[in-house]
Prior knowledge:
Strand content: 15-25%
Number of domains: 1
CATH superfamily: Tgt2/MlaC
Structural class: alpha+beta
Distance between the termini: 40 Å
Order of helices and strands: EHHHHHHEEEEEHH
Radius of gyration: 17 Å
CATH topology: Nuclear Transport Factor 2, Chain: A
Helix content: 40-55%
Shape: globular
Largest sheet: 6 strands, antiparallel
Low-confidence stretches: 1-19
Number of strands: 6
Mean pLDDT: 85
CATH architecture: Roll
CATH class: Alpha Beta
Strand order of the largest sheet: 1-2-3-4-5-6
Amino acid sequence: MRILSVVLLMLYSSLATADEVDMSNPNQVIHSVSINTFSRINAEKEHLQKEPGYIQVVIEEELIPYFDYKYAAYKVMGSHLRKTSAEQRNDFVQAFRTYLVNAYGNILIKYDQQQIEILDNTHFMDKKIVSIPVRIRDQNEQLTQLAFKLRKNKKTGEWKVFDVIAEGISMLNTKQSEINDLIKKKGINHVIQLLEKKNSEFSS
Length: 204
C-alpha cells in the first residue's frame, strides 16, 4: 500500500516519465499514471482554468500511453468484431480512443488535490490480467473506490490499462452493453458516426 499525497505528486512528477516506466510491472504503471497525470494537472491548473479543453492534451500525453485502447475497443465491439471490415475496425478504434480521451478528461478536470491511495498487486507474475485498487479521498474525507484492470501483452510483456471500475461499475462492460445493442440495431457505421458526434460535442 502506498499513499501519494499532493506534495509527493508535485515532488516526484519530474522523476517519472513514460520512457522510464517499468511496463513489465503493472503496479509501476499505475503509480506512474497517477504521479504523471495528477502532478501535471496541478502544475498546469491555471492553464486548465483558462482553457479547459487543454485537459485533452494532458490525457493524450500522460494517460493514453498506458492505455490499451485498441484492446478495449475490440472488447466493446464483442461478437460484432469479426463481422466488420478492417476499415470499420480502424475507424471504430480511433473514434473510441478519442471518446476515452474526452471522457477521462471530463472526469479529471474536476481533480482538486485529493489523496490517492494505491494498493499494489503483488501476485501478478503468472497472470495475464490483474486488477489494482485505487482509493481517492477528497478534502471532506469522501472516499471514491476505483480499480484499474490491466492486461499483459504476450508479445511485448508490457502491462497496459484496458478498463476502469468505479464503485464496482466497469466502464468497459457498461459501454459494451450499450454499444453492442446499438450495433445490433443500427450497424457499426451508425455507431462510429454516433461516437464521432459525441466527440465533437465534447470539443465544442
